[in-house]
Write a structure and sequence with these properties.
2 copies of one chain form a homodimer.
Chain A: E1 26-27, H1 30-39, E2 42-49, E3 52-59, E4 61-63, E5 66-71, H2 76-82, E6 86-99, E7 107-118, E8 120-122, H3 125-139, H4 152-156, E9 159-164, E10 167-173, E11 191-199, E12 203-204, H5 216-219
Chain lengths: 226, 226
Amino acid sequence: MTTESPESHEYPVTARTTFKRLAYRGTYDRAVVHAILDEGLVCHVAFDVDGRPALIPTAYARQGERLLLHGSPGNRMLRALAAGTEACVCVTLLDGIVLARSAFHHSVNYRCVVIYGRAVEVTDPAEKREALRAVVEHVAPGRFEDVRAPTDDEVTMTKVIALPIVEASAKVRTGPPLDDEPDYALSMWAGILPVRSTFAAPEPCPRLDPRTPVPGHVSGYRRPGA
Amino acid sequence: MTTESPESHEYPVTARTTFKRLAYRGTYDRAVVHAILDEGLVCHVAFDVDGRPALIPTAYARQGERLLLHGSPGNRMLRALAAGTEACVCVTLLDGIVLARSAFHHSVNYRCVVIYGRAVEVTDPAEKREALRAVVEHVAPGRFEDVRAPTDDEVTMTKVIALPIVEASAKVRTGPPLDDEPDYALSMWAGILPVRSTFAAPEPCPRLDPRTPVPGHVSGYRRPGA
């Protein structure tokens, strides 16, 4: 692993994060990695169980240069990661369907981040509480102050782990289809069908007093960067 | 592994697919698994490299009871899977943000499928061609017939692998927040913020003749089940 000053705007390149293919789509730029992590809602976590890969989707939050995951103390992924198992985490944003003139050049526009590493468990109650706040605020910015805060028991009953964002990279495809030169003369439509994550009208809990106003953090919900 | 008749409407339960937590959200129902796979656009593939997990997002298609992946022959994930490496594939659909009255009970509504297993490479040119058709049709239903078909060289230049959908399960959360009973008396808004994948106005390729009509499979694009 190369060493870089903490002020570097790029993550250090390692054997695992060296781009093997389509390297021009890859970047180690911290700002790009952060923006993707901050916009995403769900990550996928790969880890080995008995020497074979397993994969779990879960919520998360970025807290500076670490990725926070949380859940039940019985969650086997969190237990494995807390025990120091190697993990690989990916956040993928799908931006468009690339409709080329040839079947061969069909593709998707996307932004994804891959992080490799070993997590550590967060055990200090105050630090855990702050992590739980970060996860709620990641999924629903502005909500934490409006809801009933975690009790000490709830903090105890939640396992929190933190994966350092050190061995990290992003890959991004943007732009129109790239067809073979002769195919541009063909007559079929070609272009991008943009894909968006959108948020429909909020559905109140059936047990909610119907006079309860919808707060601005729900009615005006948007992802950062979107 | 248990054995079941091919007519069973459920996948056989194995050690790896036995639900460890929140089992009531899990199902082995083929129809549920198929519907999630057919609606999704991108899967995540976990596989080991030098004994450590790696994770890659990619397009796919379901073809009966197998999941097709494709790409460059140099793609290390496809090469590993073609060589018989154990894989774990996940397709996740995010349906809503669950805004509870307590921070602790915040959650997301989702549907996900996890498939464990070993893939085989598809090498027969006719079968590969059919697989490439399936992948284009998965991402853009109705498009394959409109575009320039793969040449023999393009078929040769594409690696296709098929993962049997045998060791598979789905997990689904739906419905309103589930708060602790005393918290229902609290006054803040609670409910679901539905998340939808939507498709914006198609963006024509800059090199497209502007008189080219937008075909129905683009203007009327929708995912199956959505």
